[in-house]
Amino acid sequence: MAPLKKGKPKEQSRALKVDKEMGNLVSYWDSLVTFGKAAIFNPDYSVPMMAALLICEIILNVMIVHLVSYTEIDWVAYMQEVEGVINGTYDYQLLKGDTGPLVYPAGFVYIFMGLYYITSMGRNIRLAQYIYILFYTLTLLLVFNIYRRVSKLPPWALVFMCCVSYRIHSIYVLRLFNDPVAMILLYAAINFLLYDQWLLGCVFYSLGVSVKMNILLFAPGLLILLLQRHRLYKSLALLSVCAVIQISLGAPFLLENPVSYLLGAFNLGRQFLFKWTVNWRFLSEDIFSSRYFHICLLIGHIFTLALFYFISWIKLYNFSDLFKTSKEKEEPISANDMVRTLFVSNFIGMCFSRSLHYQFYVWYFHTLHYLVWLVDMPVIYRLLVLGTIEMCWNTYPSTNISSSSLHVCHAVILLGVILSEIKHARSKFSKSK
Question: Sign (positive/negative) of CA torsion 395, 400, 403, 408?
Answer without folding.
Answer: negative
